[in-house]
Write a structure and sequence with these properties.
Oligomer: single chain
Strand order of the largest sheet: 3-2-1-4-5-6-7
Number of helices: 11
Shape: globular
Bound molecules: nicotinamide-adenine-dinucleotide
Number of domains: 1
Length: about 290
């Protein structure tokens, strides 16, 4: 066994991953499984679930995949019961499900706010309430990882309620982390910025949807992201593997920012030929050069 495997202690542990068949979720499930973690996935996308099932089986991984809606309390608690029956332990929970659409706040309705809170926040409460007693009962501690977003850490015009819901996940995690710290249960967030996935692709103007695809262009992305490239799904799954592992045993109530530096740059842009500024150069605005 190598240094990482021994220090990480992931082999033989059990993880629940909601939204595990999506863009980031699949990478998270695959990388946890590659480290010997037995994975239980809940996802609403039946086709994606079947594809993931086939891939995990082909690689000989022990996994439980259920198609269902994380917003339905019975479905979510059924997943945890299935984990109890199959493996009798729970070490890690990764809450991946989330999503949004672009609209000015004043153009949105209470129905839309409710939908955004349900898909980004409320299931996280329920999943944590199901996970913590199981982790306590196991007596080995545990790790809960919530996938949030850079938009939980800055203003996000056009995404007010999404941003608020993800910020609520961050604050909830911080408090819960303190409440369950004596049980050695850790809660942390991973806050990506731009990682092309089918979902993100739709929001960025792929598949016939409206929007600017500047972030898919090497010159465009270099303006906004200090490391001058989009995120890759493994940039996120690497963080989750670390947080699930014993390498992070003293880390709780905090957030990792795998974003190529955008959280740090916070509104500063690297304009071609002009360099860093926290505003667009006038000649670019006026099309003078
Ligand atoms: N991709 C990015 O650039 C990015 C950036 C910041 C934050 N995020 C966050 O990362 C998470 C995953 O994003 P992604 O890009 O992989 O999106 P995605 O749409 O590919 O993944 C979400 C997964 O959740 C599943 N899902 C949706 N609603 C569900 C429900 N009600 N019940 C069960 N499963 C459901 C989807 O089928 C999908 O497989 C989200 O929480 C998103 O807010 C992504």
């Amino acid at each position: 066994m190598g240094w990482f495997e021994e220090r990480g202690g992931l082999d033989g542990t059990v993880a629940v991953i909601t939204g595990g068949a999506g863009g980031l979720g699949q990478a998270i499930v695959t990388d946890l499984a590659a480290n010997g973690v037995r994975t239980a996935v809940l996802d609403i996308d039946g086709e994606a679930i079947e594809q993931l099932r086939a891939r995990l089986a082909e690689d000989g991984h022990d996994a439980l995949l259920i198609q269902g809606d994380v917003r339905d309390p019975d479905t979510l608690s059924g997943l945890f019961t299935a984990v109890d029956e199959r493996w009798g332990r729970l070490d890690t929970l990764v809450n991946v499900v989330g999503g949004t659409f672009r609209a000015s706040f004043t153009d949105t309705s209470p129905n839309a706010w409710n939908a955004l809170l349900r898909i980004n926040l409320l299931h996280v409460f329920q999943a944590c309430s199901l996970a913590v007693p199981r982790m306590r009962a196991g007596g080995r501690g545990g790790s809960i990882v919530n996938i949030t977003t850079i938009e939980a850490h800055r203003a996000a015009p056009g995404y007010a309620v999404y941003s608020a819901a993800k910020a609520a996940v961050e604050q909830f995690s911080r408090t819960l982390a303190v409440e369950v710290a004596p049980d050695n249960i850790r809660i942390n967030n991973v806050a990506p910025d731009f990682v092309p996935t089918p979902n993100m692709d739709k929001m960025a103007g792929g598949n016939g949807h409206s929007g600017d695809r500047a972030m898919y262009d090497p010159e465009g992305v270099a303006v906004a992201i200090p490391m001058a490239r989009p995120g890759q799904v493994t940039d996120i799954s690497n963080c989750v593997v670390f947080l699930a592992s014993r390498l992070s045993t003293y880390l709780t109530g905090t957030t990792l920012h795998p974003d190529g530096g955008t959280y740090a740059s916070a509104g500063w842009f690297n304009w071609p030929g002009d360099g860093w500024a926290n505003h667009a150069p006038l000649h670019l605005i006026r099309g003078e050069r």
